Amino acid sequence: MYGLLGEHLPHSFSPQIHLALGNHDYNLFEVAPENLEAFMKEHNFKGINVTIPYKKAVIPYLDVVSPEAQKIGAVNTITVRDGKLYGDNTDYFGFVYMLEKSGISVKGKKTVVLGGGGASATVQAVLHDFGAKEVIVVDLNTENNYQNLYLHYDGEIIVNTTPVGMYPNNLKSLVNLDDFKNLSGVLDVVYNPLKTKLILDAEERNIPCSAGLSMLVAQAKKAHEIFFYTKIETSVCENIENILKKQMCNIVLIGMAGCGKSTIGKVLAEKLNKELVDTDQMIENVENMPIPEIIEKFGEVHFRNCENAAVILAGREKECIIATGGGVITRPENYNPLKQNGIIVFINRDADLLPTNGRPLSQMHGVKALYEKRMPLYRQFADVEADGNGTVEEVADRIIKEIELL
User: Fold this and answer.
1) Which residues form the catalytic set?
2) What is the pTM (predicted TM-score) of this model?
3) Which fold has domain 93-214?
4) Helices (H), 21-165
């Protein structure tokens, strides 16, 4: 057996990656800290990867540790050979791949590494080997911590190696990028969500950045080579990453009320084998009343607050078609929750074809006036714009074609 050792692994991508690499016997081993010793001594496996929080904790149980892993002080790959446990570190290869693919240069630059765990040790080693001028490690209760982070606002590269921002605690970040005036690159080893708040913040400021999925795939490729004494072309990493992104990402439908988001969403869900999530339906289920009644009884502000709560819940999941309400774009705080795992599609249906029956805001403000007012916001949110005129099937097929072009 092969697999991944960790404490909490409900949303790991590793089984899908190793299956794509050809390993059909890859499992998840969720082990509580008090059971780690028994798990390691029994070693009922042929090879395992190791993740948070055990990359350092497993080392005392190993018979042989590779020079690379010794240098880093962390192990993420263990194999059993002749009854002995051998420890390696493939995260080094993974982070090198991520760094090179990002095009971000660290040579001669001051780098700020958030976190001091096993992943941090790997990142530090790579940064030193790639010629970083200075590597500052920021962690809790250390010389450089989050209380005196201001001392390092001149940092040029930021690398997050902590689990902050990782599912299910999405949309959290340890730093405000506006404090760092010289930034030329942001890297985050977290891969779930596909884009953390740190990465979204970097994109908003046009700072070169990279999320952790590429590192995860590359280190898995290296681990597979160790498990099976084989060699795989590095180009395979990008192929697997692209497949995973398409599989995992949400398709988020925005557009005017009555443009067909829910109906088109059902067709897309069937065609793409994804789950349909309707934020309006989520709101009605929580409030236990239809949306027109919510707005009439409590007002639009209350409804928008409910909508934001629904968007936050829906957006952190993956492999979904998310149909949103027509006014979701009126709250800027809805963007990051939808974008973190999603491709946002604006369904643009002619205003003359939009119904107003059962849609109080369209009736209240006038559908054409509302359409003109919201148009810039839809286009600001959207990655893709699809012609919403025609049959449901036609619009769904247009959306699929537009997404394939990305």
Assistant:
1) 55
2) 0.92
3) Rossmann fold (3.40.50)
4) 36-42, 67-72, 91-102, 118-129
